[in-house]
Amino acid sequence: MKALIVDDEEAIRETLEMLLREKGYDVCTAADGHAGLRIFEEAQPQVLILDIRLPGMDGLEVLQRVRASNIPVTVIMMTAFHDMETTVQAMKLGAYEYIHKPIDLDEFELALDKVAGTIGFSTRLDNLIREISKDYKVDDIVGNTRCMKEIFKIIGLVACTATTVLIRGESGTGKELIARAIHFNSPRAAEPFIPVNCSTLVENLFESELFGHEKGSFTGAARQKKGKVELAQGGTIFLDEVGDITASVQVKLLRFLHEREFERVGGEEILRSRARIIAATNRDLPALVEAKQFREDLYFRLNVVEIYAPPLMQRQADIPVLVDHLLNKINASLNRNVTKIHKDVMDAILGYHWPGNVRELENVLTRSVVVCKGNVLLPEYLPDFFANRSQRSAESGPIKPLVKVVEEHVLRTLEFTNWHKGETCKLLGISRPTLRRIMNESDFGR
């Protein structure tokens, strides 16, 4: 990372240059404003350390020209004059930090660490946005059935609005893919898309994850942390499994949706964010409302526009095109060339009930491509629990309730993985809470 120091005092330039080099910076220096501006345009450093009182051109004018150049840089201002007007002006012009002389090296080092953290986060965020933008478009949600075409229409209608959206559907039906398609086809596409899995965090951690916390607000809170809502700003927060959030967090989420205001855990400052909320659930929220486990007012706030992601068995006609799409994706990611599927494999895929939906289909295809020895996917490459399943219809006896079929399939998968729950979830394309719920409701889970 590059840094530029602009100060007319040689001793200060040398001291700060030594400190920065120890931290791994590539350092340039200048003794006046004109030289500093010229070096800045040539070197384009990520960090600019700028004195306010400089010969020829003062630091505020340099800062103004730096900002006008649109070259991204984080600026630390320095001054021996402690007047409020200069401080306010510097911050208005976009200075990140303001250090008084004589310089306290501990204070300066702390400011520098904050700058490095901010630059690192910003870079990762930009890379993430670019990476996700490439991967998530409406075109990537595959389907020709009527229910999928309706989803495409709704995505197009809501993408250009700030409306809160609730996506319902079983695990593995592509709820997050729909949320990403809304975000990346909206005016917010250049802003962050931040997913939060509500089912994986305990109450205190979830509240901190969403709204942030102040230093010392609870055991382990060693420093201030910004939450997802604050980081997203004009982007999108995707709340997956929103039906699992606790009552106290429901209150705070409702307040944010109503007022666009929030406070960090342990904080008193009222903060604002323009982040859009898209929520998803595989649970029956109206039933939770009826059971007093989910706030009715929050449900209506979340459910301004509802999108239903149907299970794979409700869109069987899409399976062949989905298989083709997923194979192309898997081949690209694994550098393989499995381009053909044996008829028996396709018949087995079409005859299967897919409790894990599209995610399970992708996992089965991925596993099969990994072990495939040619460019044709044969039945022998399917997972054993899938390939050896008993025939359907008359050959398999009376039709069983779907819940029983799901339980038996989960049990076979658990046995196949030697009861490794993480691997079972991966193969089935379901979350741990879903697996835990199925096990708790079945005989083998007791």
Keywords:
446 residues, alpha/beta, Rossmann fold, Helicase, Ruva Protein, domain 3, 5-stranded parallel beta sheet, 16 strands
General description of the model:
The protein is built from 19 helices and 16 strands. It is of the alpha/beta class and 446 residues long. The chain folds into 3 domains: 2-124, Rossmann fold, CATH 3.40.50.2300; 139-310, P-loop containing nucleotide triphosphate hydrolases (Rossmann fold, 3-Layer(aba) Sandwich); 313-445, Helicase, Ruva Protein, domain 3 (Orthogonal Bundle). The strands form 5 sheets. It has a 5-stranded parallel beta sheet with strand order 2-1-3-4-5, sandwiched between helices. It has a 5-stranded parallel beta sheet with strand order 7-10-13-6-14. Strands 8-9 form a two-stranded antiparallel sheet. Helix 10 (247-259) packs across helix 12 (296-302).
Strand order of the largest sheet: 2-1-3-4-5
Q: What structural class results from the helix and strand content?
A: alpha/beta
| CATH topological fold name of the largest domain | Rossmann fold
The CATH H-level superfamily of the largest domain is P-loop containing nucleotide triphosphate hydrolases
State the gist of this model.
The protein has 446 residues and is α/β, with parallel strands linked by helices.
